[in-house]
UniProtKB/TrEMBL annotation:
TM helices/strands, residue ranges: 28-50, 57-76, 88-108, 128-152
This protein's record includes keyword Lipid metabolism: no
UniProt keyword annotations, A-Z: Membrane, Nucleus, Signal, Transmembrane, Transmembrane helix
Subcellular location: Nucleus inner membrane
Pfam families in alphabetical order: NEMP (PF10225)
Organism placement in taxonomy: Eukaryota, Metazoa, Chordata, Craniata, Vertebrata
Domain of life: Eukaryota
Membrane topology: Multi-pass membrane protein
Protein name (record): Nuclear envelope integral membrane protein 1
Coiled-coil region: none
Keyword flag Oxidoreductase: no
Positions with biased composition (Acidic residues): 260-271
Amino acid sequence: FDPKLLLLFLLGLMLFFCGDLLSRSQIFYYSAGMSMGILASLLIIIFILYKFMPKKSPIYVILVGGWSFSLYLIQLVFKNLQEIWRCYWQYLLSYVLTVGFVSFAVCYKYGPLENERNINLLTWALQLLGLCFMYSGIQIPHIALAIIIIALCTKNLEYPIQWLYITYRKMCKAAEKPVPPRLLTEEEYRIQGEVETRKALEELREFCNSPDCSAWKTVSRIQSPKRFADFVEGSSHLTPNEVSVHEQEYGLGSIIAQDESYEETSSEEEDSHSHCPPITQNNFLT
C-alpha cells in the first residue's frame, strides 16, 4: 500500500468529476497560473525567447537543448527539495514569492477564461489529466481500466437518460389525441375585448407623448385635433353621443328588444299555422 498512489488516484478522481467546475473557478485559475509559473518558469522563459528569435537560425537546437535542460533541472530540484530547503531556504522562498507575484500579475492582466470554447478545452484537459492520474494511481492495469470505464459511464450517464426521456416524451405526444381548444364564452369575450382595448389605448397615449411621435404630422391627418389632444391628456376616446348610440345598438336594451321581436315573430308564425287548413296527402292514383 502506497499512500502517494492513493493520493494521486483521489486527485485524478477529483479532476475528472470536478473539471467543469474547476475550469470556471477564479480561485483555481489564479492558483494554477501561479503554480505553473513557479514550477515551469524556465520553460516559459525559453518559450518567450523562442517567439522573439528569428526562424532561420539555430534556435531549434537551442530550444530543444533548453527544454531538456529545464526538465532536468526541475527533476533535480524535486529529488533534492528537502536538502535545498534546508540549506538554501532564503533563496527558495524569495524565488517562490517573486515568481508567484509575477504569475499572479500576468493572470490578473488577462483575467479568467470567458470564452465557452476555451472553458471546454480546459475542462477536457483537466478530465484527461484526471484519467491519467487515476490510471497511474492503481498498480493493476486491468482494475485501473475498469475503474476508468466506470467513471466515464457515470460521468456521461445523464446524456443517455436525457435522450431516452426526450424520446419518451415525443412518443407520448405522438400517441396523444389533440385536445380541442376551449372556446371563450360571451362574458369572457366581452371582458377580454374591454381589457385589450384599454391596454391598446394606454399604449397609444404613451406613443403620442413620446418623442417618436410627430405631433404636427398626426394633427394634419385627423379631423378633430382638439378631441385628439383631450384623448392624449387622459380624456375618454368616446363622446357621450357615441356611448348612447352604442348602448342602443349593442347594449342591454337592444338585446331585450331583439328578444321581444323574436317572440312576436314566433307567435305570428304559430297563428298563421293555426289558421291554415289541414293538408291531406293524396293517394298515388290521384
